Amino acid sequence: MEEKILTLHPQGKKGVRIDKAKYETMRKTILDVLSKAALTHNDLASAVEKKLKGKFEGSIPWYMEGTKLDLEARGIIERVPAERHEVYRAKR
Q: Per CATH, which fold does 4-90 belong to?
């Protein structure tokens, strides 16, 4: 049986239960991408998709969104206002 994780939401909304192995893969990928630069939501999604395409089973955008919100709720990444769009970055 696959181990699951209940994600958190930064606004206190109900999280989702996802496979822990998929969460870990997505978490590592998001943090790797954000360690290089702060990115808009679209740029983050594109970078994660590029890194995981063909190596990840399931909807990359769906898992990325749930994991990103969880990392934000846990204070591991942050959403920062920028000139045109908000950007995400790993917290130092």
A: Arc Repressor Mutant, subunit A (1.10.10)
Q: What is the mean pLDDT of each run of 10 residues along the chain (92 residues)?
A: 92 94 98 96 97 96 96 96 90 80
Dist. CA 40–CA 38, nearest whole Å: 7
Rounded Cα gap, residues 20 and 39, in angstroms = 25
Phi, psi of 88 (to 5 degrees): -105, 145
Q: Other C-beta atoms within 10 Å of 37: how many?
A: 12
Q: How many residues does the chain have?
A: 92
pTM for this entry:
0.93
Contact call for residues 50 and 87 (beta carbons, < 8 A): no
- Cα four-point dihedral sign 55, 58, 60, 65: negative
Taking the domains of the chain in order of start, what are their residue ranges? 4-90
